[in-house]
Amino acid sequence: MPTPRKKLPAVAVARLRSVLTGFGKNRSSLPFGLGPRVVGTLFGNRRGHVHFAFQRDPNSPPAFLVELATPISGLVREMASGLVRIALECDKLGKLEEDKKGVSQSVRLLEEPVWRTYCNGKKCGFATRREFGDKERKILKAVEPISMGAGVLPGSGGGGADHEADGELMYMRAKFERIVGSRDSEAFYMMNPDSNGAPELSIYLLRV
After folding, report:
1. CA distance 82 to 80
2. Could you tell me the end-to-end alpha-carbon distance of the chain, in angstroms, rounded to an integer?
3. Which pLDDT tens digit goes with each residue over 119-175?
4. CA 121 to centroid of chain Cα atoms
């Protein structure tokens, strides 16, 4: 028998709905690093995983850079079939955990290292924060002149033999509207001038 698809738990749906109600009330509450309009780049090798980067402007280093467990080919298929909503969720540190680790919950939301990932309600493993290294720098430099669009870069254009061995590099680049609900919730909505409805891609960051 085919394995039934797992739906996003009801508690997670409730959390998402509750934080979304606050986004419209906090459009001007913007922490340092990113403004209300950001540059978003989705990229990955054809046989590799999805990477997301958000930059203040095309020339700045990314304030948020993560690698998802989702293959980029799978995400491309999802986007071709309709709207895509990605929720990245991480945990708050409780008081006991703070005492044990000797740290307080002062980490900015964009700097959290590990996230549970949901794509259109389906659990998709984990996303991890990536350091902005030479490979990522070369990729973002290659697409720097592109304000909006999607395409393919040669394997060698992504930063050396490792990328070439994984095949050509697929990318999509667009402007995103950034809305801060609280210190524990942010949303990024892709801005598409050709679309008259909901954004084709929405990304939610939640700390619960």
Report:
1. 6
2. 35
3. 999 999 999 999 999 999 999 999 999 999 999 998 754 444 444 455 789 999 999
4. 15
Nearest Cα neighbor of 155 from 139, 141, 172 is: 139
Residue 6: HSE in the Cβ half-sphere, 13 Å Cα cutoff? 10
Rounded CA-CA distance 190/177 in Å is: 6
Type of residue at 123: K
- Whether 118 and 89 have beta carbons less than 8 Å apart is answered as yes
Predicted model pTM: 0.76
Q: What's the CA gap between 23 and 187, in Å, rounded?
A: 8
Is residue 38 within 8 Å of residue 47, measured between CB atoms?
no
Contacts of 96 (CB under 8 A, 6+ apart): none
CA–CA dist 205, 197 (Å, integer): 22
Phi, psi of 163, deg, nearest 5: -70, -40
Distance CA 98, CA 87 (A): 25
167 is written with which tokens?
Answer: 């095949």
Q: State the Cα–Cα distance between residues 69 and 145, nearest whole angstrom.
A: 28
